[in-house]
Amino acid sequence: MKKILFILILAVSFWNFNFGQEMSQPIRLVHTTNGSRWAQVALGPDGVAHVVWEEDLYTGPGHEIMYVSYDGKTISSPINLKTKPDVRGLRPSISCSRKGGVFVVWNQEEIVYLREYDPVGKKWLSIEEVGPCYGGDCEQLVALDPSGNIHVVWFSDSAGKTYARSKINGVWEEIKRLSPPGVRGVQCAVVAAKDGQIWAVWREKGGGGEYKNFYSKRRANSDWSAGKRVNDAGASVSHPHMAIGPDNVPVIVNGDIDESTGHSQEIWICTLDEKTNPRELAIALGLQHYPRIAIDKNRKKHVAVQIGGGDFGDGVKYTNNIQGTWKAPVTFGAVWPKLPGISADAFGNVALAWASMPEGNTGIWLSSLYPIVRKEFFPPLNLKATASFKLGETTEVTYNFSWEKNSKNNDNDLEGYNIYKKEGSGNYELLLSLSKSTTSGSFTFSTFKEDLQFGITTVALSSLESEIGAFELTYPPIYPPSAMAATISLTNVKTSTKVTYNLSWQANPQNSSEYVKSYSIYKKEGDGNFELVQTLSKSTFSASFTFSNPQKKIQFGIKTVSVVGRESDLAIFGSQ
Predict the structure, then answer these.
(1) Residues 238, 305: contact at Cβ < 8 Å?
(2) What sign does the dihedral 362-368-373-379 (CA atoms) show?
(3) Does residue 279 sit in helix, strand or coil?
(4) Secondary structure class of 242 (helix, strand, coil)
(5) How would residue 245 be classed by pLDDT, with cut points 50, 70 and 90?
(6) Torsional sign, CA 134, 88, 202, 69
(7) What's this model's pTM, rounded to 2 decimal places?
(8) What is the pLDDT of residues 140-164, one digit of tens each?
(9) Mean per-residue pLDDT for 203-231?
(10) Between these two residues, 559 and 13, which has the higher pLDDT value?
(11) Which end of the chain has fewer beta carbons closer than 10 Å to its terminal beta carbon, N or C?
(12) For residue 39, which of 60, 67, 15 has the smallest C-alpha distance?
């Protein structure tokens, strides 16, 4: 019994040690019966896997651009993103926005196209033309910055040129050539950092025939910088790819071509710190090409590469440096995958996708470090907001917010909270961003607006937000005027007597002047009720009322009215 228990403990310990360090048993997302290749994957801000690939349906001369999603429970029905059936769609790339949008680029008929999935409307939008390949087919990649701006890079292999185009605030900019004139520049990649910096990499051919990596960067409000050489180390590079982690430092992976064979490669990593740009060997020399890289939330690197050369590969390799050193690569069998796809999410998961042609394990395959799970996020609870007005002549008003964490959220998946404001029926605008350990906040405005409303969202590590929860806003009390006085004057006109009531008051120092909207005068005759007779501006501090031959006792009262319509208690003239 002790021996069995000891073996069980060892087995459990071994499983725990390896969990999250090795890719899971692959699952087949789609069992294709046709030629498929170029599978690429993007993990969305909710942890869902989105996969695209190029497939020959054998129904005509065209190759389709196919898409499927997987949330850990359900595999969506594959759909064709192309709308023109008789042309070849080539080399798709996929990326997700922080709000859950899915963006796919490919080329057909020597033109780069983009199609977007709208997570709000839950539909694919119309196809957009990005730009021409400028000679032959091209390869294109897409990235989304934190503001949702779209950045596409592509190269024409036959023309030897690399280009970029961005859609900023919904408007496409002019096409920018990244590689310089007179120099062959091909095989590119693009990434966007959480700090808003966008990076591109490509390789340029030198005078001796060797290729070296060059990079450029930009922000949404600036142009691409002039290309800079990454470094001179290593052999001639092949197929650079790029990823970026939570530290906003991009990392490049590429093959270093063995000069003696001309086709075997080592797979190298280069951290683009813009100082020394250090390199490290990830996978030893072998017949392999098209490496891809992802970086997890702990800044650990994950690399995949096709085994074999050109179009005729026989599987993919995967490795990582989770333990600080590069592990021996794990092999997944496949027939002619062309290249693997790899993606990391903000929660620590990494997914690997590849295609396999009909001669082998036909279909589109997916493996991941952790199980794919759709993550949901919920707004905080017990939302309260109060407003305080600074006494005196100042116009400042401070809103104080408080809330409680929602136990439905996994705290390890959270970044913090966003507080929003909106005026009337307008849209919510970001007001404050706070850490997840915070359960209160405040903001001061220099002027008061009656129709302000406030809401709050829970923000995930991926920047995905929950629905907006509305604060219940409580305003301060309003006090009646002070120093109230009333005098009565009589005027006899023949048989009639006129009685004039002269009322005066002062602003109550307990009220902020900006919080006061007006004063309301009430009148009561005999045993009746007080009724509103006049509303005066907040700058008015006196009023007079004249009556002829009044038959009943008349009393006056006054209320202060706040800017939100709240009235003070009624103060009666002559009762002080």
Answers:
(1) no
(2) negative
(3) strand
(4) strand
(5) very high
(6) positive
(7) 0.85
(8) 999 999 999 999 999 998 999 999 9
(9) 96
(10) 559
(11) N
(12) 67
pLDDT by residue (tens digit) across 277-297? 999 999 999 999 999 999 999
Residue 88, SS3?
strand
Backbone torsions φ then ψ of 364, nearest 5 degrees: -110, 125
* CB-based burial, 461-486: b 16+ in 10 Å, e otherwise: bbebbbebbebebebbebbbbeebeb
Which H, E and C letters describe 389-440, residue by residue? ECCCCCCCEEEEEEEECCCCCCHHHEEEEEEEEEECCCCCEEEEEEECCCCE
Tell me: pLDDT of 261 over 70.
yes
Rounded mean pLDDT of the chain? 91
Query: Per this entry, what is the length of the chain?
Result: 576
- Given pLDDT bands bounded at 50, 70 and 90, which one contains residue 11? very low
Q: Give the DSSP H/E element, type plus range, for residue 572.
A: strand 571-572
Asked if 448 and 563 touch (Cβ cutoff 8 Å), the reply is yes
**Are the beta carbons of 164 and 224 closer than 8 angstroms?**
yes
Q: Is there a contact between 571 and 560 (Cβ–Cβ < 8 Å)? A: no
Residue pair 165/175 in contact (Cβ under 8 Å)? The answer is yes
Q: Are 46 and 462 in contact (CB under 8 A)?
A: yes
What is the residue-wise DSSP string for 99-165?
Answer: TS-EEEEEEETTEEEEEEEETTTTEE---EEEEE-SSS-EEEEEEE-TT--EEEEEEETTTTEEEEE
How do strand 111-118 and strand 102-108 relate by DSSP bridges? antiparallel
Q: Give every CB contact of residue 307 below 8 A, 6+ residues apart in sequence.
A: 286, 287, 288, 313, 314, 315, 316, 317, 331
> Which is nearest to 340 in space by CA: 114, 51, 19?
51
Within 169-258, strands assigned E span: 171-172, 176-177, 185-192, 198-205, 211-218, 228-229, 237-244, 250-257
The tokens of 18 are what?
């390896």
> How far apart (Å, rounded) are the C-alpha atoms in residues 504 and 518?
14
CA 14 to chain centre: 37
Q: Which domains does the chain have, with CATH numbers?
A: 32-368 (2.120.10.10), 381-474 (2.60.40.10), 482-572 (2.60.40.10)
pLDDT for 433-457, tens place per residue? 999 999 999 999 887 777 899 999 9
Give the per-residue pLDDT at 213: 97
Neighbours of 25 (CB within 10 A): 6
The overall longest dimension of the chain from CA atoms, in Å, is: 127
Q: Measured on CA atoms in the order 41, 44, 49, 53, is the torsion positive or negative?
A: negative
- Residues 447 and 394: their CA atoms lie apart, in Å, by 9
Nearest by Cα to 205 from 267, 139, 155: 155
Task: Calculate the alpha carbon distances from 519 to 128, 428, 536, 564 in Å.
Answer: 59, 33, 5, 13
- 231's CB contacts (< 8 A; 6+ apart) are 212, 213, 270, 276, 277, 279
Per-position DSSP letters for 27-83, written without gaps between them? EEEE--SSEEEEEEEEE-TTS-EEEEEEEE-SSSS-BEEEEEEE-SS-BPPPEE--S
- Please state, in angstroms and rounded to a whole number, the distance separating the CA atoms of residues 31 and 44: 23
Tokens 């790899």: give the residue: 342
- Bridging pattern class, strands 472-474 and 381-389: parallel
Asked if residue 232 lies in contact with residue 250, where contact means CB atoms within 8 angstroms, the answer is no
